[in-house]
Structure formats: C-alpha cells, structure tokens
Amino acid sequence: MGRTQLPVTPQFEKELRRLSKFRRALRHADQQAFDDLFAMARKHLSAVAHAAHPVPLVVFLVGIMLEQYKEVARLRDEVEELRRLLDG
Amino acid sequence: MAEHTGWLLDVYPDEKDSVVLWLLGEDGVRYRFIHDFPITFYAAGPFDRLRALWNYLQSHPIPSLLTRMKRRDLFRGPVDVLAVQVNNMVAQRKLFYKVRRHFPDLIYYDADLELHLHYGATYGVFPMARCRIDVNQNGEVQSISVLDSQWELDPDPLPLRVMTIQPDVDPAHASPSYLHIVFEGRTRRLKLKPQRLLLDSVARIINRFDPDLILINWGDTWLFPYLLDLAADYEIPFNPNRDQERDVLQRKELSYFTYGQVLHRGRQVHLFGRWHIDRCNGMMYGDHGIEGILEQARVTAQPVQISARKSPGSGISAMQMTTALRQGILVPYQKQQAEDFKTAGELMRADWGGMVYQPLVGLHRDVAEIDFISMYPSIMVNFNVSPETVGVHADGQPIPDLEISVERKRMGLVSETLRPLLAKRIALKERLNGLSRADARYASLEARISGLKWLLVVCFGYLGYKNARFGRIEAHTAVTAYGREALLQAKEAAEKMGFTVLHMYVDALWVKKVGASQVADFQPLLDEVLKRTGLPIALEGIYRWLAFLPSRVDKRVSVANRYFGIFQDGRLKIRGIEARRRDTPTFIRQAQMDILHSFVQAADGERLADCLPGVIVMLRKQLAELRAGRVPLVDLLVKQSLSRELEEYRTPSASARAATQLKGVGKLMRPGQSVRFIYTRGRPGVYAWDLPDPLNPAAVNISRYGQLLVRAAHAVLQPLGVGEDTLRDWLFSSAGYVQHADVAPEEPSSVFSRSVERLPLWKHIEEGDEPGY
C-alpha cells in the first residue's frame, strides 16, 4: 500500500496556498480575521487526518465551525452570568 | 510646377482622378489637387492556387501589376504572397470582390483598407496636417511633404470657415418652421416654407460663404435628407459639396450591439471637399465637441467626417493598421486568429476582469483617491502587451496569475501604436492641470484630452474583440492580470504605510489615514506605488468627505460604483446615483443636485446634518410645485432607449409602450434609439413626447414623480442616517421636519462588523461624533 493521501500538515498548507489569492485581496483587518479562523482549524489537524475525507477543506471548515460554536457558547454563558449579576 | 503650403482638408478616392486632395492654402484659397496613387493588395495560399489567380488576373479587363514576394504576417511570420497592384482604389475594390468570389479559399491581405489608411501610411499625412505640395499645371501632385506631426501638442490653428445651422425645434418632436444659420458672426433666419425658396437660399448661402465645416443640428437625420428629397421632387440641382463633380454620400441607419447595449446610428450624409458634422447624430460630439473630434481625426489619421460619426474603436483600429502598413506587416482581410486552447483551471484564473472591491459603506472624511493614469494602455506600453507578443515565447517575462509570458525584446504592434498616443495624453493632461478653469484655453484642451482618452479606453476592448484584426483574447487577459496585480500591490503598499483602503475599482483606490489630509501626507504613498508597479499614477484629489452608498436592493451590501463626495476644492464627484443616469428626468436630477450643492456649502462632513432642515424645506417646495402643475413638462421627460424591436417585447417596458404610441402615428423607432415620454395616470401609463398632440398636463402621474423624487433624495440623504420612511414622514406628513430621534447613525451592518471594528472610522461613529451608518 502506497500513500494515496498527503500527510495532513502539508495538506493544510496546500489548502492555505490555494486560498492565498483570496487572502491577498482582503483588506488588512480581514486578513487578520482570516488568519484567526485558520488558526482555529489548525487545532484539529489530527482529527482531520483521522477523517480521511476526499475534500480536506470541508473538514478544515468543520473544525473552524466547531471552534466558533464553542466561542459562541462561552460568550452566551458569560452574558447569562452578567445578566444574573445585574438582576441580582 | 507650383508649390503650395497649407492644411490638408480632405482626401478621397476617385474613379477618374485616382485620389482627390483638398488643401486649405496659406493664401486662403481652397485647392483641389489630384494624385496618381496605385493600391496594392496581397493573396496567400497554395502555390497552384496562386498560379491560377495569376492567370485569372492577367486576362481580367481591369489591369493589374503582379509580383511574387515575401511579406510578414503578424502571427505567422514571413509568408509567400502574390502582390496585386491596381491603378486606383475604385478599380482595386471592383477587382478584389471579383477575385474573392472566384478564389474564396485564398487568404487576402490589405484588401479592404480605406484609401486614407493607404495614403496616410505612404505619405505620413493626416487630416489638417500642414503640408507642402508640388503640383504641375494640371493640378497633379508631384510630391507631398508633411511639415508637422500628429503628435504636436500645439498644432497651428486652421483658419477654418465654419457655418452652423439649426432648426427652431427638434424635428423629431415637431415640425420646424425656421432655420437659424450663423456664419462670420452673422445670423440669418430662413423660413422652411416655401420649400423651393428654402432650397435656393440654402444653396446660395453655402455657395457664397463656401464653408469648410458645416455644423448642423440633425443634419444627418433630417436637414440634408429633407433638402435632397425636395431637390429631387422639384427636379432642381442641389449639391452642398465643394467638389461639384461628386454627389453627396448617404449612409443608412443601423442598430447594433456593443459593450452590452444596443446602439443606434442614424442616417449619415457625408460631403466632399468640406466637412459636415451633425451635432446630434455623432457618436462622440456630445462627449467632447468639435475640438475632441479634430484631435481624434489628427491622431488616428481618419477623415474628420468619419471621426465625428464612428466609434473611437474604429479610430484605434485605424491607427493599428497604419502602424502595420508602415512596418510592412500584412493586414488580414478577415481575421483568422483563433483562441488558444485552455484548461478549465487556466480559464478560471485568466478570465476575469479588473479588480473590483466592495467599499466600506458610509461617510468618510479626508479620503484620497489615487488613480492609475490610463491604466490599461500604460500596461500595454510598459509590459509590451500586444497580440503577437503574449504567450508565444517561453523565455519571456511571466505574467502574474497566468501560465504564459510576454516577449520583451521586440516591441509589439499595439504597444508601438499606443506609445505616442499615451504620451500625448499625459503631456496634455499635465498642461491642463497647470491651467485655471477660467483660462480661455481650458475647455478646448479638456475636449482634446477627452478625445484621446476615448481612444485609449477602447484600445483595451479591441485587444479582446474577436473581430478586431489585431485582437487576441490572451493579450486581453494579460492586461487585466497586470492591472489586478498593480492594484493589489498598491493596496499592500497603502496598508503597510498605515492607510485604510476604503475601496478599489479597476484603476483607482481610495485611502484614508487619521491625520492625513494634505497632498504631502499622501505623497510618500504615491511614490511607493509608482516604485512597486512602474505605472504612472496621480492623486485625483482629496475629498473633504465621501459617501459610499449601499445597494438599493439590500442595504447591508455595498456596491462598487455608487458614491458621491466633495473634493477639497469644492468639486463634486458623483457615480451611480440618479443625477448621473441618462434616463433621469431633469426635475429629479435638479432636485438631487440641489441637495448635493447644499452639502457643498457645509464646511465639512461633521456639519452635514445641519443642512437637513433646509433640504426638507426645498424638497417640500419642489413637491408643491409638482402638485400644482408648475413644473414644465419638458423637465419631467424620461429618456430611455429601446433594447429590441417592438414585437420582441413580451411585457412591454415603459419605453416600449411609448414607442408603440409613436408607431401608431407612423414614427418608427429602432432598437438603440431613445424614446422620450412622460409618466401618466391610468393605462398605458406613459405618453410619448414626440406624439403630434400635446399632452394634457392634468394627466401627469404626480405620485409617480413624487416617488422618484423621494427615492433620489433618499439616495443622497442616507449617509446622514435618514431612512426612506423617515424622509417620507417629513415630506408628506403635515408636521414637516422635526428633529427625529431616529436621525442617528445606524448600526453598522453585520456584513461589515467584523472588519469594521478595527477601523478608526467606525470608532468615531460608535462614539457618535460623526454621522454615518
């Protein structure tokens, strides 16, 4: 059995390169946001490798959504906490 | 033998005299000379077919001189051709059309070029060129030399005799009863009836005054056809030509599709020995007037009457053909260059246009607009982009985004053609920048620059136009690729220097930085962009404030080309709003401009809201005038052009319904022609302006115009945070304007909030010290 897939880190770098033209055309502030998002995806590289998905970008995006969801949930908890403090 | 010096007025082919030249002599005399000028065309193909052509031509009644030779095809290199020389152009055309029918399989070159191209390329002449001509006693030209250049920045002004003629009303709208004729500072008024007398008088005046240039309102579409028909009816001779041996040349009307719209060209009447320009039919007259037309004629070497009527595209292709003729490059009769094969991926990367950004919607202060000067032509000249230089040599300079390269060693045909044109425009523009607007030379210089600008604008389109003889799509995509790269480099330079890039649009970018408001603050950026891209740029100006408007359909989305602003010198720049649109009624345009002008009075963006009470009073007054029927009907006219034949409309648009009314009275409208109408109540909802019976003012659809007014006012008031409903309240409720609580900056929309929170501009808004979105 040879290797049919690139290892996950080079795969990730390749996807980033494919998006580099998109990133280049963004305003500076949006470029920072872009980098933040893909830093989130990087957290899940080993899970992506496990997925062995034919279109790795999809899995990277799911990784980003996951992190976003966790952030939203954290903020929601914080808002509720603050509201309790205010009402209290 | 006699020597004459003067200015070249006209050159045209003649069956008997080969070529006729008209010279405006320095002595004030208008000379008609003739010149023996043979024309050569070429045929290429298999040897046996050329042999057959040779035999055919030798036995043909039209005599020709045949030679075998090698000439250069732009794309294929040297080819074996049969050169066919014919005595004059009229005979050449007859012969060529016969040959083409008998030998359709051969490739022809230089076969259908107009005389002025051959003649201009051979002798270097162009319209209005200062020439010295030696002629013999029969008026036959022995030698001709040009004393100035078409690239001359200050050509000698021609002592032209100009006559202007205009009817008292637009003949499409009503029957004129008078003609106003102006010459030598005198005005004559001629009655149109009795017709015979009119014909006599016009002929007599033209004959006596002998103008070089006749400028007529509706001369092509109405006056000359009318007079010529009269002359035929009364069987009396009427010949407005200076060359009395020729009849006037008439061309039929035409509808055609170009640049995504249907255009209409009216009938044309060309004169011989003098120029006739219709001020209402010329493609370009409305854009830059007579000075622009003459400038175009000079640089393209196309006759004045053609420059006035044809698109700048024909001008640029004439220039390319002249370059080819001068360099001995064959001009193909029909284009044979096919597009190269590309993979889907290559096509995806290559086939998009210029860089278009989504601007940051809202009101911005101290914004600099930086423009690349004639970006696409500059790229073609700078990077040598030409159909024969792109993608042919692997060792050339690689093009960004594309898998092909450009040859740098040999100057391309298109680059070579554009270089002097671009240099001339930049030189004249620099001169214009040094003049005050009040200067007497300003308007004419501006018109000339505009004439040159249009040539440069279309040359890019011709590079990708499949029917252009020297067009090739690969060269076209190369230009946009260089353009996008230049803009991205400019953006990166700006962001590196701490500027916020508000917007980018093909060849311009808008930037701002806290503390930067003077030219010197932006100069380092200009220098850096020039250094990185190698393309000439200029600071178009610094806006006191500038508003980028959202889409009308979804206000969370910005659109690329809808904005208005005021430069520090008080100049307004508006794009994409009603006042810029051609179909907007004068009443609406005026109201919108009035609002913008009241903004100009405000010292800066912060005080804009102070204008609101005044603006509301003004708008209420305009609405009252509208309701009272005091707005002149002509100011309510909507002008829209037809995009297809009437039968082809499935749900007729307002313009189609108006055109149908006109058809009912026998006035046929063609696609590309514009129809003028007024919105009326009930069905069919419109009334065509050019119907014979005047419209009853009571039928005007007041509420429709009221809505148009509100919409136009809202477009320019929204950056102050005025919603359309609020505006309606102010205008239509009896309470009038009160300081509503909701006139406050609207929340930045979610689309932008992510990028927005890091921008200093939005911080201002959040703190509430600047009106905006």
In short:
Chain A has 88 residues and is mainly α.
Describe this structure in words.
The complex is a heterodimer of chains A (88) and B (773). By secondary structure, chain A is mainly alpha-helical. Chain A has five helices and no strands. In chain A, helix 3 crosses helix 5. The longest helix of chain A is centred in the last third of the chain and has 32 residues. Chain B is an alpha+beta fold and 773 residues long. Among the domains of chain B are: 168 residues, B family DNA polymerase, palm domain (Palm domain of DNA polymerase), CATH 3.90.1600; 164 residues, Topoisomerase I, Chain A, domain 4 (Orthogonal Bundle). In chain B, the strands form eight sheets. Chain B has a six-stranded antiparallel sheet. A five-stranded antiparallel sheet of chain B has the order 3-2-1-8-9. In chain B, strands 7-4-6-5-19 form a five-stranded mixed sheet. In chain B, strand 5 and strand 6 form a beta hairpin. The C terminus of chain B is likely disordered. Classes of the chains: A mainly alpha (88), B alpha+beta (773). The interface between A and B is small, with 9 and 12 residues.
